[in-house]
Amino acid sequence: MKSLTSNPQLLGEKPQTNVITVENLTYAYPHQKPVLHDISFTLNPGSRVGLMGATGSGKSTLLENIIGLKQAQQGKIWIHGILLEPKTLPQLRRHIGFGFQDANDQLFMPTVLEDITFGPRNYGISPAVAIDKARQLLVDFGLEAYAQRSVHELSGGQRRLAALAAILALEPDLLILDEPTTGLDPAWRRTLAQILLRLPTQAMLIASHDLLWLGKVTQRALVLTGGSIQIDTDMRSLLQDSQTLEQVGLPIDW
Ligand SMILES: Nc1ncnc2c1ncn2[C@@H]1O[C@H](COP(=O)(O)OP(=O)(O)O)[C@@H](O)[C@H]1O
Ligand SMILES: [Mg+2]
Predict the structure, then answer these.
(1) Both ends of the chain: CA-CA distance in Å?
(2) 58 Cα nearest atom in ligand 1
(3) Residue 219, pLDDT score
(4) β-pair partners for 97
């Protein structure tokens, strides 16, 4: 991706090798103490990272900062080496697939098919190509019979799948998902893991409480506690460390 700035050094641009760079991010909701304190981390190309932390630890808030839905009081975020700021946001959004914690926030068109073709058509993909791609995604997500139905006729889990299909329709090179397995049964959790593992996506950052699922899909774990990232480690070893998980409010065997 090409830089927007003519003099990277002067503007403190980050090396383009990182897909995400978060530096000293502090975020507080209005009139409250900060939810995120001085958070710094990077994601390299090819990394699949699980964002963990107890309910209320700030996972959604962090993800919403990274996609520019919230603006931190302090700190900076770079995506592909480009500083996230209002003027770069439209360009950066084109590369980021973001799945909201609540799938209803993602779906707004009259039919499921229109929801899945909306993004690509908005970016100038021809209707025929967008529809072909959407039909394939509907099959992948078991929704082919629902193409012309309203999302209001779908179950919670089906809405989740429709929202994921709408995100993948854009073929994002950075995928950021907030609790993607909510409402999915074990078979669909497995299918979703398989779909995500097949994607050519450059990097994934996935917030989830679904620890065992996260263990199948991601390699690295970031754990949010007390407003900062207390643990940044290999996912597999963390999932074997029930004592540490218990300490951060994520009991795995109980
Ligand atoms: N819109 C909001 N206004 C004020 N506080 C909020 C708002 N959204 C979330 N919070 C608070 O921020 C903290 C982190 O929330 P959130 O990022 O949703 O956590 P998580 O996704 O890890 O469950 C919680 O204490 C929550 O109550
Ligand atoms: Mg959340």
Answers:
(1) 46
(2) 17
(3) 97
(4) 175
pLDDT at 1: 39
Closest listed ligand to the CA of 177: 2
Q: How many other CB atoms are found less than 10 A from the CB of residue 211?
A: 17
| CA-based radius of gyration for the chain | 18
By C-alpha distance, which of 65, 93, 43, 21 is closest to 219? 43
Residue type at 134 in one-letter notation: A
Q: Whose CA is nearest to atom 11 of ligand 1?
A: 56
Is 60 exceeded by the pLDDT of residue 70? yes
pLDDT of 131-164, one tens digit each?
Answer: 999 999 999 999 999 999 999 999 999 999 999 9
> What lines the ligand 1 site, CB under 6 Å?
29, 32, 35, 53, 55-61
d(CA 182, CA 101): 8
